[in-house]
Amino acid sequence: MANRRLNKKVALIGSLIFVVLALGAILVMFQLSGDPQELIQDAEDALQAARQATDEQIKQQDYDRAESSFRGAYASAKTDDLREEVLFKMVDMYLEVEDKEWPFVLGCWDEIIRINPNNAKARFGRLKYFYILSDSSVGGPWQEVHKQASEFLKVAADADLLGADTAKWDVFETEQIDTSRQRLGPYLYLLRGRAALEMASMGAVTNRDKSLAMAVDDLKKVQEYEPNNIDAYWYLAMVTMTKGELLASRGGPEEREKAVKQATAILEQAVQVAQTEPRAHINLLAMKLMLSKNSDPARQKEQIKALEPEYLSLVRDFDSSAEAFAAMSQFYSAYSSFTGPRLGPEKLDKAIEAVEQAMKLDEQNVVYAISAANLYYRKFSLYSQKPQIYKAIETAKNALTLPDAQDTPGPRHRANITNRFMLYAFLANCYIEQILEPGQPDSTSQMAVWMTGAEQAVHEIEQIYGSGEEPFIIKWKGMLELAKGNKETAIKDLYTAYEKFKALKPPEPPWPRDDEFSQLSYTLAKIFKDTPEIGVVAEFLVSALYSGISEIKPEARLDYVDVIMKFGNFSDAMYNINAFEEYFGPTERSRILRIKSYIGAKQFDEAEKELSVRMQDEPDTIKLRLALAQTRIRQIQLNMAQKEMRESSDLIPLQTEPEEKEPVGLTAGIGVMTEELKNYRRFEIELLEKLLLVEPNSVGQDSIVGICRNYIVQGQASRAESLANRFLEHFPDNTIVLVYKQIISEPDPANISQQRLKEIEEQVLSSITDPVRRATQFGIFYRTHGETEKAILQLKMAVDTGTSQQRVA
Length: 809
Description:
By secondary structure, the chain is mostly helical. It has helices at about 1-5, 10-30, 35-50, 55-75, 80-95, 100-115, 120-135, 140-160, 185-200, 210-225, 230-250, 255-275, 280-295, 295-305, 310-315, 320-335, 340-360, 365-385, 385-400, 415-435, 445-465, 470-485, 485-505, 515-525, 535-545, 555-565, 570-585, 590-600, 605-610, 620-650, 670-695, 700-715, 715-730, 735-745, 755-765, 770-785, 790-809. About 35% of the residues are buried.
């Protein structure tokens, strides 16, 4: 998403306008007089002085003098040949300075082509600039690449330059794109074919079929010139896949599978013609991996596993290729997501080992560094290995020093800025997560380090985007406020960012993985987790899961299970528990949620089976057995009520199905169900008594009151009193149970009058010693009995007393 938000075209247009104005100023500033050769010599002398100068101020003065003299020479030149010569010298000068003056370089190339449309050197430089710009950005100016390549092809054909060596024109020594191609003809056809493919893929042409056909023609031309050109095969395969998707969208789903087979065959052919070129093998394996990940879920794991020998062979055959090890890292990263709890960490370690080797072979590659940082973080996040978070942070900080993460001008400027943003966003997330996550607290000094790092990272993100209305800035400012403890401000910012991000999503999932949005959604879900806003929490969790949060925070699935069980959605809950355990193995939390799901879904036998393998005296087991017993009690009571209703009804229901059977659960007689209910009641009391001993805070007053009420109805007041006393040993101020204890002591508790019940309640409330609590409870009591004025008076008294106590404190 970051790439999409960084508009390269706007920046480029602004640069070109600047160039036009600057070149226009040249003609105004300098009179058409003087000796151009003398001015050229003076400029070259100034350049030589600048190269030797050690003082930065003097060096800049020499460059300014050289630029001024070159401009003067250009303005006073009498012939186009001399103007071209001066402009090329200016290009060399602008490329020589530390921060290359690319807008002026483009302006010089444009002017050279205006003067001499057949100048191949200027055309090559300008075209390659736009190609690098498009190749390194999402939605780049491919139309411009297509237009320039078409014009250049005509010029090159007329001048018989299609076989010319491009190395003599190449000024992009530091760029890694297309440096292997040497002949102009195949280079131009490849660029034009690629541009046609990209425009068709983006829908940037009126006739996508025609654009794809043109791409095929150009790429086949490349193969005529260079039969072993790996990129031509790759882009032909991509054209085939794009055509298949296009035809499938028009109602021919079989075309997609046909295209996959054709594309794979093209890449296999590339391997045959270029056995020693690692990229041919990497491209084929990348296609196979993509198809495996998109295959039937039941076959994904086996299909991905089958690729492992091929990747091992790749790095064995090309042990000096950083690309090969990077590809292997991507494979093992994907594989680790499909291998379950036993092999997952092992495959993730292999992914890390491979990317570390790629970094050793290509130390300046920022993409490999970003990948390594993300893998370290993933290992920390999935397997709670704290040292990995430090490695992730250190790797990301080092990556910020690499060339492709610098804010330097040139065709890769926006790509560099995107890399820079990704790294700072990654660091901000690492720092803030360490501040917010519960667990073993870090030292005060370490927390200060985390906070300083977070503040710096968020500041850098603000510098990159500039506008405070950007959702990225709003999000990270909100995250920083959350880390500082300013929850109210944080929620406002985070929700605003959430709404902005979600507005950019398709109305319905599936959505592509989006770490920014998934982390934001999950953070909001955790903020509202313990509030009554259950529906909002569910929405945030759904957004987080659809955006890929479970790949780095698998417990998000269990958080979602917690929420949807409150809505009674037990089938979806079970699906997510199964998905979690398939890849990360059963945990104590997932096992407990599974049993709760069985209980909620009335799958009592399955719940009993799961409970039978647990430690029976563990508090969690007791609570689960209690929940199961209480659910069975409610179910039996419902069955008895339905049974009695069916048997005592004077109305004979219309019999639409002669073979209709009595509902399950109603086949037993009332006597059998009554006995079963008594057994579960006894078991409930036994479990409550155990829980009062080992974890009294887990015993709710409703459970005690329910049993006491049942005892009273049965005439077993002594048992009710005994249970109430055991509860009050732990919670002596529980008003509700105190009331019931008083009721139990009445001569006929089962038939107590409402007036006497009210008197008992007033008596219990009057015994409360804390004035604020006493007034509050009386307010609730009066409101329950419809005495509004008394309720308001008591609640006001509670507020006034509480305020007074705070002042004294």
